[in-house]
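cron nightly-structures :: item 1 of 1
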Amino acid sequence: MAEFEIDPDIRNAKTLSSGFYTDLQYFELSKEKLFANSWQFLGHKSEFLGLTPVNLLPHFLSEQLLLSHDSDQLRCLSNVCTHRGKLLVEEPCQANLIRCGYHGRRFSLDGKFLSMPEFEGVENFPCDDDNLTELPLCDWNGFLFTSLNHSQDFVEISNDAFSQISDLDSDSIRFTERREFEVNAHWALYCENYLEGFHIPYVHQGLNAVVDYGTYTTGTFRYSSLQTGYDASGEIAARYLFLFPNLMFNFYPWGISVNVVRPVSPSKTVVEFLTYVTDETLVDTGAGANLDTVELEDEAVVESVQKGIRSRFYSRGRYSPTREQGTHHFHRMIAERMNSK
């Protein structure tokens, strides 16, 4: 498909066609080709262990999931009853088993079928299909990930990215806040904006005063990219780690801000912000300060782009070879997945 042809040489390449961002067919196809096979962020295990044994997870691609733990064994399970499809858990709860409120089917906390009233005489029952589907659960320094269709190994996808972050004090991480922002723009436009520092001097005056634009760097890996901003003294002010297709880890001296970009429609996106603090004395300092202001500035830009790409006079753009390596890499990954069978 012509929309998904990105020249590997950034000097010759043109961006994705505007049709990718406006066509509902491509939006639906991208959910299966880009997202269903990806590893998605759930949170830090400290958010779940020691709290209620059964926790709800943000729904992803309309899938309803829950996280259960028994004797500190965490499991990610389908939250849909295998009898008639009712949601099993409507809110986090204390429980030693999972019981459907529709017809009384019961499951253990590891998702195994336990019992069902009025099913005497049913042949070949119960079977494996009566258990709750368990999804894989992977852990990086306490941060948890799962995949709906884990066609690729988590280590293969994350190794390059996380090997760049060797100084994380995972034992001191403390979850402090979860917020959501609704953005009237395509999810990929939000990611593209994140993947380049090119716009910082023009859009983020406050951030530009902290980060030395001249020394800003971008490195790309197989399934990720890492941007590093330095302050005037040459010290690292922030590191921005992107895992394809929609996950952002922002490392600041005070801790980590995680952004999860969730597609809603071709013109609407929800961005979930999670804050993990390691040093409270550094909060609201440096590049990690005024994040709300930076977010609003980014939203304004991508929402303006969302309007502009619908123009009959715009189809594709070009890349800055020195400043848009991350966006070029992102587009190539989209093209690879969209063209896959």
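cron nightly-structures :: done
The chain has eight helices and 17 strands.
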